[in-house]
Design goal:
3 strands; three-stranded antiparallel β-sheet; 43% helix; mainly alpha; 102 residues; single chain
Length: 102
């Protein structure tokens, strides 16, 4: 199944900071890795990724940096391949127009 995922700049930063490998990362480390994003923007974008199912968290009931620092996050393994393709889009190879005739 192929997903058509469109990510904006903040979402790309968060996905790259989390990594596609599937390992968990705590909120404090995530904030440090996403230093270019403001805390409120980071929290809002992260909650959006969680609501779409692209990111898994222990709980989605955090509203600020203090609550986020206590949580653990990781990329949802079901979307890992599609997110990897969305981060590095490659053109699809052209299909051959040749037809096999019997």
């Amino acid at each position: 199944m192929k997903y058509d995922i469109q990510l904006d700049g903040g979402e790309i930063s968060i996905i790259k900071a989390l990594g596609i490998g599937g390992s968990e990362i705590d909120g404090e480390t995530l904030r440090a890795r996403c230093g270019d994003l403001e805390t409120s923007e980071l929290v809002d974008t992260l909650k959006g990724l969680i609501s779409l199912g692209y990111v898994d968290a222990d709980s989605d009931s955090f509203y600020d940096a203090k609550g986020m620092d206590k949580e653990y996050f990781r990329v949802n393994p079901g979307y890992a391949k599609a997110l990897k393709e969305a981060l590095d889009p490659r053109p699809e190879p052209k299909k051959s127009k040749r037809v096999r005739r019997e």
